## 1
Amino acid sequence: MKENDEDVIELLQRQHREIRDLFVELETAEGDKRQELFHDLVRLLAIHETAEELVVHPEIRDLEPAARPVVEARLGEEHRAKELLTTLQKMGTEADGFDTLLVQLRDDVLAHAEHEEKEEFPLLRAHRPPERLRAMAATARVAEAVAPTRPHPGVESAKANLLLGPPAAIMDRARDLIRAAFRS
Ligand SMILES: [Fe+2]
Ligand SMILES: [Fe+2]
């Protein structure tokens, strides 16, 4: 499937798989490779959760009263994951205790993604027509422009992480881009 044919649910589920794969790779990676993978994880989680926060959760919250507490629970999970991700980035991949916190983040993030796939996405698919879901994907994709993808070989990983900035800053920039797309 071409990326531009994806609807918003397919896009988010693909990102869930990419996030899961990054956690698996991080389990055994060491040194620079570990820093690069963590860079990719911070970027992808920031983009993904911001798109969900602005494009998907509000849409689901408006579907029916029963959807509201489901969405509130997801937003709370996203907030906790963002804090944990920020702590991890400050620690750096070589720090004592990084591995333990990373496992906690992985468990939280994967459980969160499963909740979304089971409780939210089916509601959205049932209530919104295909063309609306594809338009939502286009808006969600705007967030991808926010942060550099992994730098080419030769760029020091530590410098790359500085370029990337903290998760909250990436999310703020992604929010600005998505809001601008809403207005256009
Ligand atoms: Fe999420
Ligand atoms: Fe998600």
## 2
Amino acid sequence: MSESALLTADEKQMIVSSYRLIAPISETVGDLFYKRLFETQPQYRELFPEDMGKQKRKLMTMLAFIAKCLDWTEGQWRQNVQPDEDLFLVVLALGRRHHVLYKIPDEAYGPVRASLFWALEQGLGEAFTKELHQAWSKLYTALATSMQLGAKSSRIKMEFGYIE
Ligand code: HEM
């Protein structure tokens, strides 16, 4: 049977623990990520603002929020969750902004994944084991799929005649 695409409880905890290692060096990991992205995909540089300081912090804040959500217990998910605390809704809206405001095509998610994983590997060193790589990989696929769904929902909205 093929391996499940769903993150297991162990995989979630692996990601949460690895994020605790990344948090104190998040500036460096952010720098490495964008440096690698712009070296390998120079055409993406113009999509971002000149000063990348704010952008780096926004990305790392989002990763911290994602790690916090993965650490939730089953019980917490069953309680009433505010929309701005609901990982799926937050990521859908993020994907919608990437499509509508930043004009990011679905194809860009692959190169961004490669640069992010390269930066994680640099930051975590030997702690970035094969199992941890697989867990982050599943997480990234879930994030990218949800963001692309958010993008698609805004395209459908346009087809219905909403003004964007
Ligand atoms: C899992 C994937 C991704 C995550 C978690 C992510 C996260 C973020 C966050 C948190 C922001 C801050 C602005 C906001 O919240 O709207 C942002 C902005 C942005 N992202 Fe992403 N992003 C992802 C994928 C991508 C991809 C594939 C690209 C393509 C190059 C991209 C390009 C941009 C650009 C151009 C901005 C706006 C910069 C600006 O004008 O301030 N992102 N992203």
